[in-house]
Amino acid sequence: METWMRLMASDGSIVFGRVENGYLHEYEGLDQPVPTGAVLSLRALTLLAPCAPGKVVALWNNFHALAAKLEKPVPSHPLFLIKPAASVIGSSELIRRPAHYAGKIVFEGELGIVIGKRCRDASVEEAESAIFGYTIVNDVTAAGLITENPHFPQWCRAKGFDTFCCLGPAIVSGFDWQRARVVTKLDGVERQNYPLDDMVFSPAQQVSLISQDLTLEPGDVIACGTSLGVGSIVDGATVEVTIEGLGTLSNTLGTACAQSGSLAAVEGAA
To answer: Distance (Å, rounded) from C-alpha 181 to C-alpha 197?
Structure first.
């Protein structure tokens, strides 16, 4: 497995590369994984979201256990919505409650698929080769807005606010998702703990089927959907989503002051 990160240097420039022994070996970019030769100490860099997706494709009802609880049929094609690029933040960045919304905000700990090359009408085999690696997602939702209008469920609005898509702390290539679990803690109390092998559609199947509907570009992310244990976040609470091998994604909602990203969150990544 290899760990990849996107960080900000002291001069404001953004660098991307492979992390090893406390150093970042810089590459041209996710879509051009060619080393530049530069090697930078992580201590001099600030953590960002590990990629800058043009879009995040977020799945719904992609786990057998949750489908059974909701008494919903297992879908024959991925059910998804789009989260905009402006919703993306990295680990340790603040989730901002919308100023006009005082209702329930919920967390959803998920696996994220990071696309490495343009993908359209891909076979499962082609889709597998188009996956650059995996990251962690907290798919934040203003749950009260989904059914605010009885004539039109507002999934995209409820999930698309700025800061409502937490990604990170890193991308790991060569990750064995079938052996992993998603563990979500709210202020240190475990709320989710579910196996990724309960997914309805495997990552390669997701990429293949979604690519039949829209073109996936390098850096785009597919949030694989969540399972049991989704819950509310109160202002000031911290959500930590951990997948062994990928690290821990940590974000706080509401009133706390924003802090620069912590590289300690990468502990546990390969």
So the answer is: 8
